[in-house]
Design goal:
There is one protein chain. The protein is mainly alpha-helical and about 120 residues long. The protein has a two-stranded antiparallel ribbon with strand order 1-2. The longest helix has 25 residues.
Length: about 120
């Protein structure tokens, strides 16, 4: 799997290229790349034989964890609108926060807030 396989990862990749001087963004980019690179590219036609289910599961898990890292990076670089908190959180604390949210809590955050670089990405 690569960044171009998932729209929000592609938007982040573009943002990272435009902000290659930011250590937090580069760290997040590397973390996400380490998560998605070993995962097979998602298929458009689901073949329920063989390892297709395992491949689909791995893709979903990689996208979910990557999404949590994206939100942590966005919070730590002040790229969430409206802000989640009255301050810009520490990157490591932000990662911990987003990785520990259960699925419904993450859905609530993403419903009420937006990542700013996704609004300006040219996809």
């Amino acid at each position: 799997m690569n960044f171009r396989d998932v729209p929000n990862l592609l938007k982040f990749e573009q943002h990272a290229r435009n902000h290659s001087d930011n250590e937090i963004i580069l760290d997040c980019y590397k973390r996400i790349r380490e998560i998605i690179t070993p995962v097979p590219k998602p298929t458009h036609i689901v073949d329920f034989g063989g390892g297709a289910i395992d491949s689909l599961r791995a893709s979903c898990q990689a996208v979910e964890k990557s999404t949590r890292l994206l939100w942590a990076c966005a919070a730590a670089t002040d790229n969430i609108t409206p802000r989640l908190w009255d301050y810009v959180p520490d990157y490591d604390a932000s990662i911990t926060y987003f990785l520990e949210l259960n699925d419904l809590e993450l859905m609530a955050v993403t419903k009420s807030h937006r990542i700013a670089w996704e609004e300006t990405a040219d996809v």
